[in-house]
Amino acid sequence: MNQANKRRQVPEQVSELTTNRLSVYLRCLNTLDELSVQTISSQALAERFHLNAAQIRKDLAYFGEFGVRGVGYYVKELRRHLRKILGLDRQLRVAIMGAGNLGLALADYPGFRQEGFEIAALFDAADEKIGHESRSGVPIHDIKELRRVARKDHLDIAVIAVPAPRAQPVVDQVVAAGIKAILNFSPGTLTVPPNVKLKSVDLTVSLESLSFYLAQGESSGG
Amino acid sequence: MNQANKRRQVPEQVSELTTNRLSVYLRCLNTLDELSVQTISSQALAERFHLNAAQIRKDLAYFGEFGVRGVGYYVKELRRHLRKILGLDRQLRVAIMGAGNLGLALADYPGFRQEGFEIAALFDAADEKIGHESRSGVPIHDIKELRRVARKDHLDIAVIAVPAPRAQPVVDQVVAAGIKAILNFSPGTLTVPPNVKLKSVDLTVSLESLSFYLAQGESSGG
Q: Between chains, do B86 and A211 touch, taking CB under 8 Å as contact?
């Protein structure tokens, strides 16, 4: 079976939006578990976290039969299922390309560790940074060492946190090092071969939804 | 008309997802405009940027009649309309709370400026940071000065980039300073009064969709 056929098992469009929501549900279940809540209905889950109950049921039904009639979901069990679906039941090792402010902030971002990602390495080209480490102890390697470190440390995901003009050459190095999943924070379009998954985070989109909200308030006389 | 009634004009659930897509369309139109493309059909727009043509037409129809039969959309004109809908036709002034690695990275993030946001100020409580500025020249103020600076500089949006335990107290200071829109990068739940809009960015969600992709690849025999 070739790559294209494999990919078709879960339609790309559905999986991206659905997995984003599964991540949100997982975050909610983590909170409930910390509060020792044992079971919850889709309705109660939706009300508590401002979600859509029908959407929750539909999203989960896509992956299996998790609810129990008259009970709802068992929090711990559903949490375990979601972690498995999202591939979080084994540790994924993440490299961050670029040890500037953004790279260092991401290396120490507490949310990644909470879900079991291991930030294994930072890479930079600046001599004065190489050999040092982030506040939480992530070592900064010479980017020339990427291929060697990627193999030795089994790096699964690379995060691109370099200035825009450096992004494509760095992505090319990541691909050449055999890393198959890339999270990009750099503005602008990047290209990767079809067997590599690239996901770009555009922080401007979040600011624009606030801008829209402020504009609405004014146009309705606020 | 009270706050609750005003808000109901655009349903919250629809607006958030739709405005995120409008932001993406705007980004595409910027690219086309730079390339001197004058008109484009929804079909061509969708193919070029891996979007959904029917969704584009539906999203735009919600705000007006922008397409011309047999021509498609005029790039410059649609770009101008989208900027107006998203409230980007006037400059919004943004404050960043916290001048650590994340705050400094956001202060210098080029995408914000490209869309007309002005990063006007950083705020921190650490004496050794106050009075300095970010690489791009954003001044770092004492957080005690927030209320005064917010009025003087007409700050519209606050970005929360402080460690999780400091997030709620800082949000309370932002609200007390009269800022009505907050973008939060801190993990954990925050509360704001109903007349303040809070949007949280969870960077873990992006990593998890890559994790899901990697897990799919393996389970299908990759």
A: yes
